[in-house]
Structures are given as C-alpha cells and as structure tokens.
TrEMBL record:
Signal peptide: none annotated. Residues 41-79 form the Chitin-binding type-2 domain. InterPro entries: Chitin-bd_dom, Growth_fac_rcpt_cys_sf. The lineage of its organism: Eukaryota, Metazoa, Spiralia, Lophotrochozoa, Mollusca. This is Chitin-binding type-2 domain-containing protein. PROSITE patterns: CHIT_BIND_II.
Length: 79
C-alpha cells in the first residue's frame, strides 16, 4: 500500500512517494499522475518547498506566459 498522492504533487504509477510539481506547473487535486501547466497570466513557483496547488496571479508590470515559474518584467515602453 503506497501513500496517497497529495495536492501539489504527482505520482507516476508504481511511485513509492509523491513528487512535488515542478516550477511552472501545479496540481489542485489528490491522486494525480501529472501536474497541470500554469495558464498565461499566472505563475507557479516551488518556493521554500511548498507544494503548488493554486497558480499565483502575475504581478502588475510583469507578464507570465503559459508555464511561467516567475513573473517577467515588461520591457521598457510596454505594460
């Protein structure tokens, strides 16, 4: 009997332990074998070892394409 795969993690078949979703992805549900890619306008960052269950809104003055792990500053002259 293995551990339940927690939100913010993924568990491939036969995996003995849950694995954190990598930067740029998240998982809101338990018992999943993959993580979801962060949508445009959001970012997902595995900071301080905290599982990513909900994407963060991109900060004003920055942009976040799909799969962002951190906001990127807007170039000079853009917003």
């Amino acid at each position: 009997m293995g551990l339940e795969c927690w939100p913010g993690h993924y568990c491939e078949q036969g995996s003995p332990i849950p694995v954190f979703c990598p930067n740029g992805t998240f998982q809101p549900s338990s018992a999943q074998s993959t993580c979801l890619t962060c949508d445009p306008g959001f970012y997902c960052n595995l900071a301080a070892g905290v599982a990513i269950t909900t994407p963060a809104n991109c900060t004003m003055g920055y942009y976040c394409p799909a799969g962002s792990s951190l906001p990127t500053p807007c170039p000079v002259g853009t917003y």
